[in-house]
Amino acid sequence: MGKLYRAISADGSAFAEVLDAKDIVSEIERIHKTSAVVTAGLGRLSIAASLMGYMLKGEDDSITLRVDGGGPAGLLVAVADSRGNVKSSVDNPVVEIPLNSDGKLDVGGAVGTDGTLSVVKDLGLKEPYVGVTPLVSGEIAEDIASYYATSEQIPTVCSLGVLAGRAHGKADLGAVDDIGQDNKEHQRNQEDRGLCACNSDAEKLEASKLKE
User: Helix/strand/coil (H, E, C) string of 28-51?
Assistant: First the structure.
């Protein structure tokens, strides 16, 4: 369904992935019958999980992202395997709240900010790897970037975008996700169409805009 593009710099110091996930987000909306703002939030989390899953090394490895921010949408969960296949769930699929001050869907308001993002990697070992970080904004991309910076010490920029129409939007669903990292090993990173940049030195990184 989705289209994944990968790139690495000549010296191996930077790695990037871009995922066109329109079909994935459309299927999420169809299955869960989500409102526009929940489609955006769950779609962003699912795209991030898909990209992070694809970066796992073992064929049977999997990753689970859980966002519990105390907002009206409740708990959001996305699970992906090493091939990028993803499934997701949300406690309350229909949330209707005003647009934010920028006139956009208020994902942070639906998800909430008083909580955590947990990342569970099942790598076939005795115990899974578990990383838990406080939510930064509830907008998902910033929270993913913050996780990489604090839990994995990887300078990261992350952009996640879901086009879900206007306030009660139905038509025109779309998603684009970009992951790129500044690391000598094989680092990942992502960006949110509202932005999201974080690194271990707390420097601000400007996220480049993605064009189809």
Answer: HHHHHCCCHHHHHHHHHHHHHHHH
Task: Tally the C-alpha atoms within 13 A of residue 118's C-alpha that lie toward its C-beta.
Answer: 13
The SS3 call for residue 115 is coil
N-terminal to C-terminal alpha carbon distance within the chain? 16
Helix%, strand%, coil% for the chain, nearest 5 = 20, 30, 45
Residue 125: CB atoms within 10 Å: 10
- With a cut of 90, say whether residue 136 has pLDDT above it: yes
Residue 168 in this model has a pLDDT that exceeds 90: no
Is residue 164 pLDDT above 80, yes or no?
Answer: no
Mean pLDDT (whole number) for 189-212: 32
136's CB contacts (< 8 A; 6+ apart) are: 113, 142, 143, 146
| Whether the Cβ atoms of residue 159 and residue 140 lie closer than 8 Å to each other | no
CA distance linking residue 116 with residue 32, whole number of Å:
23
pLDDT score, position 152: 87
Q: What is the mean pLDDT of residues 91-109?
A: 95
Look at phi and psi of residue 198 and say left if phi exceeds 0, alpha if psi is from -120 to 50, else beta. beta
Count the neighbouring beta carbons within 10 Å of the beta carbon of residue 142. 23
